[in-house]
Amino acid sequence: MPGLDETNNESYRYLRSVGNTWQYNVEDLHPKMLSRLYKRFDTFDLDSDEKMEMEEVLYWPDRMRQLVNATDEQVEKMREAVRIFFLNKGVHPVNGLTRENWVESNRVFAEAERDRERRGEPSLIAMLSNAYYDVLDDDGDGTVDVDELKTMMKAFDVPQEAAYTFFEKADTDKSGKLERQELVHLFRKFWMEPYDPQWDGVYAYKY
User: Fold this and answer.
1) Which sign, positive or negative, has the C-alpha torsion 78, 99, 89, 200?
2) Which residue stretches of 96-194 are H helix?
């Protein structure tokens, strides 16, 4: 299987375009983060063929439609955010992404997100998080509470009790409500930053 580089991966292409020569090294990755990422892949790989297809990841916004009173406009916004996010995570619209290349694709995406942040460019994690946030905020008060968070856990096939552990970690200002940036912050800490055991229980140890 050919390796990933700027010719076949959007995040490597972005990094090289801004002069960043970062290169993946599996030895830099903690074994528990490696395990976490592979478990995540297996959740997305609905037909268990060791390849993640764009249609498989688009299943998740459709699942959200079934669980909340989402409008067609909100669902299409989620679908478009998912397409952009996973394209930059390495899921090719035609060829998909193999399990073999999944971890490297995540790590180069994380580096690209850090570079976007340094350059003051929009975050793709925030784009995806905000698309889901708009749907989760069922009462329209501009925040997400525990009950609304349970919907997200159910949508992503995570035990609903994870809503409580996720909420506790994400609610950094202890307001009893999650604001947009708090959700983005926790997603970034759990999936993108170097492994830190304090985040292990965020999804009730599913990942």
Assistant:
1) positive
2) 99-118, 124-136, 146-155, 162-170, 180-191
Cβ-contact 155, 166 below 8 angstroms: no
CB atoms within 10 A of CB 48: 8
List the one residue out of 56, 57, 74 whose CA is nearest residue 65: 74
Burial category of 72 from C-beta neighbours within 10 Å (exposed 0-12, middle 13-18, buried 19 and up):
exposed
Q: Which of 66, 100, 60 is nearest to 81 (CA)?
A: 60
Residue in 101, 109, 92, 11 with CA at minimum distance from that of residue 57? 92
Between the alpha carbon of residue 133 and those of residues 3, 41, 78, 87, the distances in Å are 35, 22, 10, 21
Q: Indicate the pTM of the whole model.
A: 0.92
Residue 193 CA to residue 197 CA, distance in Å, equals 12
pLDDT digits (tens, 9 = 90+) for 32-63: 999 999 999 999 999 999 999 999 999 988 88
For residue 19, the 8-state DSSP code is T
Q: Tell me the pLDDT tens digit for each residue of 142-190.
A: 889 898 889 888 888 888 889 999 999 999 999 999 999 999 999 999 9
